[in-house]
């Protein structure tokens, strides 16, 4: 088909016809004033430029910029820019500035610019949404044309074309390892806890030398016999599980079992695990997983620990002081992991301790004694003797109070007798020994404990 050139008079006729059509558009355009007879020769020279990035990532909106200029010599009262959108791509205008713009149908956007003086211009951004399913490499071509009611004596610069290419990120490289940790949210102290560490390779490559590491909370002890054979204790509180190579889309679960005797009742511990491999991981944000577990204590029927403490009624500054502790099981069942603690009163230092061979005692800073009895059978008792020294700096009459406690791996059915205290008077200078009280109990060693003592 042969194209015929359009004369200036013909273009004016088309412009008036176009503006008459746009008058029927929404009132927001207010284009009626544009329909005015053109009585004078064209005084303006309008140019349009449509620009933007050469590439647009898929999933991102297309950002364009429109710029029109009046090269003169007279003002352009109103100007219309018609933008033809790429065909078949369903782009939508979502934002515009510096002009009144509106989209009609799938392929046309009209923008109205108010009066533009000679050698002046207007510019504004345009934002278009792009369907998420658009093909990578798609070329989007935009064409803009500017028209004005004042006429234009130079039509060569009334057109502008711009193209942007849709790009896609290259496929991820490496192995995306994902770790998920599961286990109980609560456990009775003394019972074991088993954590399941599930690791999966989301690809795209095979993960080499996969290693799952689990950092144990304070007080928990790794139990290798009940854990996955691939898991080993590599440091004081870290368990390492060597999984080996893992192809994409495959996974593996490893089991880590720990004991809870070293955790206090009512404590909520946090167990943190992580996974790594010799293959680069494009997403390390999913390489860690944690789980919180609350350690509770329940009474164990038949277990009833008791402690009784005996000490001197008086002592001299700088002299020795001896405390005797009797620990017994008054219940019907054995008690395991019995813990005895005794803190020296202020002004007293512990020098030595004597205990049965199966009782393990540790002294800290000569002021805190901790003794562990592995097993205390029904009706059994243990005796611990502590020898200390009273400070010479105690120059005034002082009452020393020493308290000892006993606890086990489970709660005591009757914890009232799990604490025992004794008071000792430090004599003032030149003060005689206090006389015995007439109403002192006949057998002081039997107060607060129901079993008879025997030699250890």
Mind sketching the topology for me?
Layout: H1 8-23, E1 46-51, E2 55-57, E3 62-70, E4 79-84, E5 92-96, E6 100-104, E7 108-113, E8 120-129, E9 139-148, E10 159-167, E11 175-182, E12 186-188, E13 193-204, E14 207-215, E15 221-222, E16 231-233, E17 238-246, E18 251-259, E19 268-276, E20 288-296, E21 305-310, E22 314-315, E23 320-329, E24 335-343, E25 348-354, E26 360-364, E27 368-376, E28 381-390, E29 398-407, E30 419-426
Parallel strand pairs: 2-10, 12-20, 22-30
Antiparallel strand pairs: 1-3, 3-8, 4-7, 4-9, 5-8, 6-7, 9-10, 11-13, 13-18, 14-17, 14-19, 15-18, 16-17, 19-20, 21-23, 23-28, 24-27, 24-29, 25-28, 26-27, 29-30
Written account of the structure:
The chain folds into three domains: 8-167, ntegrin, alpha v. Chain A, domain 3 (Immunoglobulin-like); 175-296, Immunoglobulin-like (Sandwich), CATH 2.60.40; 305-446, Immunoglobulin-like (Sandwich), CATH 2.60.40.1530. The chain is 4% helix and 48% strand. The chain is built from one helix and 30 strands. The radius of gyration is 45 Å and the shape is elongated. Residues 20-39 and 437-456 have low confidence and may be disordered.
């Amino acid at each position: 088909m042969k194209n015929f050139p359009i004369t200036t008079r013909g273009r004016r006729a088309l412009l008036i016809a176009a503006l008459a059509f746009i008058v029927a558009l929404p009132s927001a355009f207010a284009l009626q004033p544009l329909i005015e007879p053109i009585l004078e020769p064209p005084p303006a020279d309008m140019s349009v430029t449509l620009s933007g990035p050469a590439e647009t990532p898929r999933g991102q909106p297309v950002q364009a910029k429109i710029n029109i200029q009046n090269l003169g010599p007279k003002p352009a009262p109103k100007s219309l820019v018609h933008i033809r959108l790429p065909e078949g791509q369903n782009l939508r205008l979502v934002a515009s500035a510096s002009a009144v713009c509106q989209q009609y149908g799938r392929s046309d956007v009209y923008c109205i610019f108010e009066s533009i003086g000679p050698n002046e211009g207007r510019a504004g951004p345009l934002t278009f949404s792009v369907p998420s399913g658009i093909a990578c490499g798609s070329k989007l071509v935009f064409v803009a044309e500017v028209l004005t009611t004042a006429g234009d004596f130079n039509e060569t610069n009334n057109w502008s074309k711009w193209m942007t290419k849709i790009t896609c990120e290259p496929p991820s490289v490496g192995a995306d390892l994902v770790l998920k940790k599961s286990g109980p949210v609560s456990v009775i102290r003394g019972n074991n806890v088993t954590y399941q560490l599930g690791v999966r390779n989301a690809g795209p490559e095979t993960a080499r030398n996969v290693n799952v590491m689990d950092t144990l909370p304070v007080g928990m002890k790794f139990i290798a016999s009940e854990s996955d054979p691939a898991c080993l204790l590599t440091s004081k509180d870290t368990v390492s599980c060597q999984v080996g190579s893992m192809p994409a889309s495959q996974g593996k679960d490893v089991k880590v079992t720990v004991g809870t005797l070293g955790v206090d009742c009512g404590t909520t511990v946090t167990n943190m695990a992580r996974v790594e491999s010799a293959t680069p991981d494009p997403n390390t944000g999913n390489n860690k997983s944690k789980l919180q577990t609350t350690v509770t204590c329940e009474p164990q029927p038949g277990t009833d620990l008791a402690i009784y403490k005996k000490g001197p009624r008086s002592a001299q500054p700088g002299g020795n002081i001896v405390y005797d502790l009797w620990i017994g099981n008054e219940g019907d069942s054995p008690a395991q992991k019995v813990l005895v603690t005794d803190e020296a009163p202020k002004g007293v230092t512990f020098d030595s301790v004597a205990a049965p061979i199966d009782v393990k005692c540790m002294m800290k800073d000569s002021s805190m004694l901790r003794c562990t009895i592995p097993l205390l059978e029904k009706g059994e008792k243990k005796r611990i003797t502590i020898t200390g020294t009273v400070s010479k700096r105690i120059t005034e009459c002082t009452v020393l109070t020493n308290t000892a406690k006993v606890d086990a791996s489970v709660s005591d059915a009757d914890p009232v007798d799990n604490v025992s205290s004794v008071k000792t008077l430090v004599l003032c200078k030149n003060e005689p020994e206090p006389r015995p009280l007439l109403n002192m109990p006949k057998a002081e060693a039997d107060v607060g404990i129901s079993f008879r003592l025997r030699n250890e």
